[in-house]
Amino acid sequence: MGAMQLVQGQREELLQALCCGGSAEGLESVIDLLLAWDLLTWEDYQGLCAPVQTLSSRARGLLDLVCIKGESACALLLAACSRVFPEARKVVLSFGGCKPPQEEQEPHPATATQALRCHRSLLVRHLRGGITAALKALLESGVFTAYDCDEVQLLLYTPSQQARRLLDLVQSKGESAAAILLQHTQTSEENPTTPENEEHPAECLLYQKKLKSSLSAQSHFVSTYGGTGNLSLDDIYTEGLLEVAQGSGEAQQPLGLEDILGHAGTLNEEADTVLVSGEAGSGKSTLLQRLLQLWSRDTALQDYLFLFSFSCRRLSAEEREVSLRDLLFMHCCWPDRGQDLIFQYILDHPHKVLFTFDGVDEFRLGFSDERRHCCPTQCAPVSVLLFNLLQGSLMKGVRKVATSRPVAVTPVLKRYLRKEVSLQGFSTEGIDFFVRKHHSDPAVANRVLESLQSNMALFGLCHIPVFCWIVSQCSRELLGGGTSPQTITDIYLMVLQHFFQCRSSRRLSPGLGWVQESVGAVIRLGRVALGGLRSSCFMFSEVELQRCGVTEEDICTGFLIHTKDHSSSECKHYEFLHVTMQCFFAALFIVLNDNIGRSTIQDLFYPQYWQDSVLAKVCLGPCLSAGSQKRDPDGGAQEAERPNLEITATFVSGLLSQRHRELLLQACPAPTLDRKCTQVVRALSKGMQKHFKSIPQPIEGEKKSMHAMPEFIWLIKCIYEMQEISVAKDALARLEVEHLKLTYCNIGPVECTALAYVLQHLRTSVGLQLDYNFVGDVGVEQLLPCLEICHSIYLRNNNISDEGIRKLIDKGIQCENLQKIALFNNKLTDACTKHFAELLKRKQHFLSLRLGNNYITAVGAEQLADGLRSNRSLQFLGLWGNKVRDRGAKALAQALQESPSLVWLSLVDNGIGSDGACALAELIRSSKTLEDMWLTKNCITREGVEYLLQALEKNTSVKSIWLRGNELSPEEVEEVTQRESRVVF
């Protein structure tokens, strides 16, 4: 296929790649190369860089222009794209073997201006880290004015764009300016600066010392509930699972704390903001606290001279307009002297500064990029400063780390992210480590762990750090011999029991007496909690608490903790210990308050009605002052708080379970509970039916499938919290699909537990697709109860190891319906293949096994071959991206020669050479069913290809053998293609 055909045929994919992440860097890097190769004239370049054009318009203009210039121009475009695009983008594109001009073919630049153009790409990379020095040299030589320097250094430009702006301006000034810039570049290459030896002003070092002292004090303790004191972060901190976020194009890989700011997972080199996303309770705030602690102790992040930490929850309370200087010095740490010098140093050395923003999802206004603010000394609303810092218009070059729940990360915000990493809570080992750190008595720790391991639902919940912490705190109740917690609601009720029984009269019998004594405090705290959620308020003044009837005794319970609010120094401010605790008290208020109207629960379960609901006007209005209820006129705050209202609805469902009826009857009349329970069940049923009605009719020949959205997972979790089998059965009564797709839904072990509880009641078998989630080994175990109804299970990219597979296969062998398993891109090694071999031996109706991109070697392939020899049904076998090499290929080929069913075999990128190809040729020759074999990206030479060609002559039923990326010359590829059309390169 010609270059022009490739460009035109892949136009949409090329446009997406050129505009990746909303950054112009990819497009501009391609243009740099095309200028250097003389494909684009200076007039072409200026037309493509017109400031009024959008990024997508510029990309389309480039593709149109190149196609007009013809076949050779298209070939150069593909060569430039191949050089610039990251590997994740290149996988889905074909470049047709197009290569850049050979160096010997490129004319030697005769002038300095020609050199700027010929070496443009290299100069951009060199200059973007030394713009200031280059401008100084040009200014001192007299060819640049101060105005020219200001034009280049506009803060809205990225460092690479500043470098291009500099080159363009130098070229316009002629040969002398170009010669000076080239001389400066050569001199700086010969005498590179050494930032390590850079001397910082004494005032800056004194300020750094004070800043570290302040952050050390702030990060030393972790608050605990119930007013029981504080725990040292050192004594309790346990690392969670931190990975490159899904969709980055990179394989999942574990990251350490300092890797957050490393290169792994980078999508946009020009962006400054790294996002750490995770569900409520996954440990995001504690992770940032640990980062602050390590920096303050000089044990991490020492490339940064200053670290400024912000809580978005507290920034929301700032009602004044402030400048960046105010934000840094008043909200973080005030310098004792040299404020002007320190602030100027920060402006001049952005690469030495790190900002952290905890809880972007808790900021009252949703992220917006509508108002640009570039001036660090000009005052603006805090929201404007925050958004412009994150997107890079303000303080470009300063690295920022922000945390948020995934649901609040909008496409607008994603455009400005350097990368996203995902915090997935504790691994199995992490749970063990945390519990043992929490309990100094090894005997108690062992008993707690034994209790968790005997209750897999609870063990799955402890994957979330905040639940693991609560369970550890409430070990007395957990080990007391009562009913073991199954749901999140159970855990939070255990918290209440633990606290109130500790403070109840000793004459009360252990059990239910604490409810009657504490219901008043629960109602008062619940009123505050619910009012705050609806208005996106997480901090409350003493006046607001008094307005809701909260007493000093209620505050002393410890569920509200004192916080410093920078907007007022006249009264104390409080916040709930954790946002999930605020949601729980809000749910208690909804369930126990007999004055809540009939429409309240409906409003809670139907998000589209939240803004103008009775819930807002009647229940919440009296709770908070007008100042606390300020909202974005465009509704930004509503979207920011929706996750909290969903958590609240989940707790409401759990509280109305029959399991807790006896407990709640002490505080609420039976008719009220019955009415609200009926409403919740009806709301859940309607919510599920809404999803089912949206399922499109299948195309002829395809299976009927449903691609569920995150709201579907929320409804499933609500049903699980109720623990009513009849509700689960009724919810799925009308679901008739053959394939249930739940990809990219942030599903972890907690969600797996709920899914298994509900889906096991499906009436017909289904294919369950959970690709690109965070299931892990713990989640696999939670899914086992619903495996019986699955004819297929897809778990690609889920951080699953051999231990999870062992449990999956042990259960799968017993499941009559199960016929397909896909586990691409996990952590599987040779240790798992013996389990798959056993499955193949025992399930003679099994159809498909896909284990691509794992860590299986020839040893694993030989073990798998043992099972393949006995299987008479397998049609699809995928081992792409492993390392079976020739030895493994031989074992697989020999085992499959007698297969009466094999249709498709993939051994892409397995290090297979000609010896392996010879064995696979024998398989081709003997198979009566094989249609496609994929051998792309191996080490097969022309000799090995000859074996395959000879086998194809004997087997006319094979449709294709894919061989692109092997060790053949272009001439050999052409020859083979002419000889056999079924060989595809």
Question: What does this protein structure show overall?
Answer:
With 985 residues, this protein is α/β, with parallel strands linked by helices. The chain is built from 47 helices and 24 strands. It has an eleven-stranded parallel sheet, with no helix packed on it. Strand 23, helix 47 (970-979) and strand 24 form a beta-alpha-beta unit. Helix 14 (202-219) crosses helix 16 (284-296) and helix 39 packs parallel to helix 40. The longest helix has 24 residues, at 670-693. It is globular. Mean pLDDT is 84; it is low at 193-197, 505-510, 609-623 and 625-640.
**Oligomeric state of the chains in view:** single chain
How many helices in DSSP terms? 47
Overall body shape? globular
> Termini separation (Å)?
11 Å
GO molecular function, one term: ATP binding
Membrane topology: Lipid-anchor
Keywords: ATP-binding, Cell membrane, Cytoplasm, Immunity, Innate immunity, Leucine-rich repeat, Lipoprotein, Membrane, Nucleotide-binding, Palmitate, Repeat, Ubl conjugation
Protein name: Nucleotide-binding oligomerization domain-containing protein 2
Produce a short descriptive summary.
The protein contains 47 helices and 24 strands. It has 985 residues and is an alpha/beta fold.
What descriptors fit this protein?
single chain, 985 residues, alpha/beta, 47 helices, 24 strands, 49% helix, 9% strand, globular, NOD1/2_WH, cytoplasm, Nucleotide-binding oligomerization domain-containing protein 2
List the helices and strands and how they pair.
Blueprint lengths: L2 H7 L1 H8 L6 H12 L5 H7 L6 H15 L1 H14 L2 H4 L21 H7 L1 H8 L3 H11 L4 H7 L6 H15 L1 H16 L11 H18 L1 E3 L6 E3 H4 L5 E3 L28 E5 L6 H13 L9 E6 H4 L5 E2 L1 H8 L7 H10 L4 E6 L21 E2 H10 L7 E6 L6 H4 L2 E7 L4 H11 L3 H12 L2 H6 L3 H9 L1 H4 L9 H16 L9 H22 L5 E2 H6 L4 H4 L4 E4 L9 E4 L2 H14 L6 H7 L8 H7 L15 H20 L5 H4 L5 H24 L11 E3 L2 H13 L2 H7 L7 E3 L7 H11 L6 E4 L6 H8 L6 E5 L7 H11 L7 E3 L10 H10 L5 E3 L7 H11 L7 E3 L6 H12 L7 E3 L7 H13 L5 E3 L7 H13 L5 E3 L7 H10 L3 E2 L1
Parallel strand pairs: 4-9, 4-10, 5-7, 7-9, 14-15, 15-16, 16-17, 17-18, 18-19, 19-20, 20-21, 21-22, 22-23, 23-24
Antiparallel strand pairs: 1-2, 3-10, 6-8, 11-13, 12-13
Helix pairs in contact: 1-6, 3-6, 8-13, 9-12, 10-13, 12-13, 14-16, 22-23, 22-25, 25-27, 28-31, 28-33, 31-34, 34-37, 36-37, 37-39, 39-40, 40-41, 42-43, 43-44, 44-45, 45-46
